[in-house]
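Our preliminary data section would be incomplete without showing what the modeling component actually yields. Below, a chain of 290 amino acids is followed by its predicted structure, encoded as tokens that our downstream tools consume directly.
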Amino acid sequence: MKSLSQKITATLMATSLATVTSTALAAPIPDDAKIGGFAVGLQAYTFNRFTAFEAIEKTAQAGGKIIEFFPGHKLSAEHPEAKSDHNLSDELIEVVKAKLAKHGVRVVNYGVVAGKDEAEWRRIFEFAKKLNLYAITTEDVAQLDIIEKLVKEFDIRVAYHEHKKQPDNPKYELWDPNFVASLVKNRDPRIGACADTGHWASSGLQPLDAVRILKGRIISAHLKDRPVIGEQRPDVVLGTGVSDIKGILDELKKQGFAGNISIEYEANWDDSVPDVAQCIGFIRGWGAGY
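Predicted structure:
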């Protein structure tokens, strides 16, 4: 039989564990933002030749439910000096919210972004909190300790993105899913990976293999399909390339992935809405099969 002190200790440990567990489960993306079982929409970079407000409109036109902002994106014709980033004023954040609501689009993510110090990273998290973001996307490895501290404070996820392998820069390791897995392994569970299937393909990797390597730590995805593996080529409509998008979606479902799938379509820059609509249609069709 346990003594009173042992019972108290056990109770305190259980309470502590429950607190850790609850704080590691930041708010989910609502079901009304989902297509085929996933929160699906656009990385605004798809429409980088237009304003952020136009990107919201085009996301809605293509059938997307969510959008991921990126830093430096001109906000709108009405506010030519403003950018849809963490330097946006509270007044303009309310204008952004109204624009999103008008078109039925939810902003869920922001990146790829970095901060020069803890003060700027705090502004990034404050911006994310004001917009009720699901996650922030970064490649800032050097300030991971600061990022983890703020993840715990703000209860917002952070996803490490990967660009393609840089042969002339061996210090760039984020292209490798094994490196990303080792980077986040012992960190807060709200810190993980942004699965960029296009950059993995350009690096000579099979995207599905990379998704499997990062099992359990994928926070978000930049979903792309490429015509070849091992070369930098313009994107193609999902399901028409060599990236095995169906297999990737199957694997994400199997893993219980609950983050955002941001289609980042890097082709046909001036008139990509029809192509993007087909990409979203592919995911909708895939979901209908379950």
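The first strand starts at residue 34 and ends at 35. The two ends are 50 Å apart (CA to CA). Preliminary results of this kind motivate Aim 1 of the renewal.
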